[in-house]
User: Which sequence fits this backbone?
């Protein structure tokens, strides 16, 4: 199987909590066989349109919370406010570009 570079963005927003943005990229090994490197980034929304990189403590708390959430609920409920999440996603991508430079072509954004 041949691998190619991928870039993935996701925003998580729980009611009454700040939004978290997560970015994960992978680079293929030479010849496209296997993955050579992974890289990630987590940021949190401090206030509207103001993102900051998450400290190690905040990252650990966020990831532990996501694990607990998985164990606590067995049912996924689609958000009724997709527009807010889409705006947060665009803000997070813009923040990531500001911090690290332009990203590769993200193509179409699936707002499901």
Assistant:
């Amino acid at each position: 199987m041949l691998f190619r570079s991928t870039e993935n963005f996701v925003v998580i927003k729980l009611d009454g909590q700040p939004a978290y943005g997560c970015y994960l990229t992978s680079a293929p090994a030479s010849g496209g066989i296997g993955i050579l490197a992974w890289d990630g980034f987590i940021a949190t929304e401090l206030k509207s349109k103001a993102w900051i990189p998450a400290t190690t403590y905040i990252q650990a708390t966020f990831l532990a919370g996501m694990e607990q959430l998985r164990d606590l609920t067995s049912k996924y409920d689609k958000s009724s406010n997709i527009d807010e999440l889409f705006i947060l996603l665009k803000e997070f991508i813009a923040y990531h570009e500001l911090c690290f430079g332009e990203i590769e072509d993200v193509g179409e954004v699936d707002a499901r």
Summary: The beta strands are 6-12, 20-28, 35-47, 50-53.
